[in-house]
Amino acid sequence: MFTGYLTRIVKQLLSFESTPVQTVQLVSFWSVFGTRTCTTAETAFVSKAHRRYMHSPKAKRHCSNMSPVKIGTHNGTFHCDEVLACFFLRQLSEYKDAEIVRTRDPEVLGKCDIVVDVGGEYDPKRHRYDHHQRSFAETFNSLRPEKPWVTKLSSAGLVYLHFGRRVLAQLTQLDEQDKQLDVLYDKLYENFVEEVDAVDNGISQYEGEARYAVSSTLSARVSYLNPRWNSKSQDTEEGFHKALALVGDEFKDRLDFYHTSWLPARAVVEGAVQMRHQVDPSGEVVVLAQGGCPWKEHLFSLEKELKVETPIKFVLYPDQNGQWRVQCVPAGLNTFQNRLSLLEEWRGVRDNALSQLSGIPGCIFVHASGFIGGNLTQEGALEMAKKTLKAARNAGGDQANGC
């Protein structure tokens, strides 16, 4: 009935001849591949054999004799980096049920399968991921030169660097070869993990004194879960596990946002950029079929990735009322300067007066600063962009200007 490895699974489960390690391998293999490769009858047969084995005295002896996998980290006051590192590891099949051993005893740590944030050693071959030793100065860029980040890594960053793709694949159920995983991997480091690395290593965001305090960062909220200095109990175990749940929920929530909202928006913008020459031969106008789609960050990154030679000047999209907006592309993410603003003589003019002034039917408004305008139709909004582009070319003014 069976062939190859599945045949051996059945025979070993039925004969109770497998070792404890083989038992785990057999059950794991069956759970992943068995139901994909067998007929209904074969699946039922193997499942019955599996249940029979798991309820047998020998199976119970095997389970009781197996040494639990152990994740080692330091005891005492806990910090966001090792808590996040432990959360990452717990998402992987080999560490899913691992015991977290919190100690500084080298002998105890030596018996752990993986050690993070303690031990004074960085050796990925032996699964040792500490960053406190004097010789350690690694960054994402130093270990992966194709990545841009130069913040010194903490245990969170080290574990993310080595295991992050697998963690994300597990949490999103994306294939590890899916290109979306590359985008998420970079995004979650830059917008979640790097902050933890920087805080733990005492790296400031800026030079000089801060104008105000920020006390609600993830690292700060983790620190508040440690016992207070004057608490009767200085036991950190309960707080550590609360912190583990806190960082885990926050990371999964952020990942869910990037996976189910941010990434689909990127796909919409990428499609619009690819189709820009069909909107206007200049390639300087893109159309988003759906309003409300966040586009600025994606547009800037996609222009670089797709090697867009002529910068895009305008984005068209429908609003909630079914009317159309024409919005100027800013010169950068954090500036009020536009690459090209709508015509100055249109600014602050509305409705029929604007239509008569521009010669474009259906005009609704142009903002007084010139960064956005509206029209009843997509064609009208596109014409507003085209006339602005034509005027800029005639004036030789294809440069950024204030909004």
From TrEMBL:
Q: Which domain of life is it from?
A: Eukaryota
Does the record bear NAD in its keywords?
no
UniProtKB keywords: Exonuclease, Hydrolase, Nuclease
Task: Give yes or no: UniProt keyword Hydrolase.
Answer: yes
Q: Which Pfam families match?
A: MYG1_exonuc
Question: Which GO cellular component terms are attached?
Answer: cytoplasm; nucleus
Q: InterPro entries of this UniProt entry?
A: MYG1_exonuclease
Family to which the UniProt record says this protein belongs = Belongs to the MYG1 family.
The protein's name in its UniProt record: MYG1 exonuclease
The encoding gene is: myg1
